[in-house]
Amino acid sequence: MFSVNSHPKTFSRQVRNITKWIILTVLQSIPRNTGAAFNFTKCPSSSELWATNAVDPTKVPRTFNMSMFAPEAPRSLKYYELAFHDWTQKPACPGAKCITSEKTWDRLHRQINDTFTIDCAGLPFHPALRFNLTQTPGALLGWWSDSLSPQHGWIPDTIVDFKVSADGSRYEYVLEFQCVEESNRVVFAGINFYAMYQNPGKEYIDAFLQLARERGLGVYMDSGEKVTIVNQTDCGQ
Q1: Cα distances (angstroms) measured from residue 146 to each of 10, 161, 180, 220, 226
Q2: Which pTM was predicted?
Q3: Which of 66, 95, 118, 192 is 20 to 30 A removed from 232 (C-alpha atoms)?
Q4: Which residues contact 174 (CB under 8 A, 6 or more apart)?
């Protein structure tokens, strides 16, 4: 401790030292790499999710390219779901495996058609997924239905992040997040880890999961059924 009876120069030096100590203590007490403080009261907006990208928070809305995500029909792009947090897949689907998403842009109806395939207890299912665009690139409105418009309300969907493939022709991976809230409570949070590779290995998947945590999604990943790594073996192409 410093003494008020110290020589002025000594007193000044002691104050500076204590000030440095206080600042250092405060800085050390701040949690590192915890991401955004999202919760189960309110769904994070697309802009809040993108803001977690400290390097380039405008990356998705500024550079999102539909042809790299879902090219115009009859072309399509196939993604393998490497992992997910989504109760419509688990526990709703027993032994969910071999999950894929084939995306194409329907110019006539101005919507993305997502041919979703999932193996449940050895039986393949193909639920219909559609997404409408919004005024903000990378922010979508989805629904589960065979109809051309939602029958049970919208499911807001955000392209949280992506990586362009080495040849620049498509997205190598896409991180998607869906969230629905009712009466000041998040009732559904879905996270999809899509990639062009079917079995890229543990290191690749771990890095993908870490990316989601850096984007603030850890609070959802650690809830409920947590994150499921999808079995993509013995699935064919």
Answers
A1: 79, 28, 20, 29, 29
A2: 0.83
A3: 66
A4: 69, 79, 159, 161, 162, 192, 194, 195
Q: 25 pairs with which residues across the strands?
A: none
What's the Cα-to-Cα distance from 31 to each of 37, 90, 143, 214, rounded to whole Å? 12, 32, 37, 13
Dihedral over alpha carbons 17, 19, 23, 26 (to 10 degrees):
110
Summarised one tens digit per residue, pLDDT across range 115-156 is 999 999 999 999 889 999 999 999 999 998 666 555 567 899
pLDDT at residue 29 tops 70? no
- Look at strands 155-164 and 186-195 and give their pairing: unpaired
For 128, phi then psi, to 5°, come to: -85, 125
Residues 6 or more apart from 217 whose CB is under 8 A from it?
A: 35, 38, 160, 177, 191
Place of tokens 């999808």: 230
87, 83, 81, 79: which is closest to 99 by C-alpha? 81
Burial 122-147 (b: 16+ CB within 10 A, else e): eeeeeeebbbbeeeebbbbbbbeeee
Other C-beta atoms closer than 10 Å to the C-beta of 209 total 20
Reading the block at residue 62, the tokens are 């500024």
Which residue, among 221, 203, 227, has the nearest Cα to 89 in the 3D structure?
A: 227
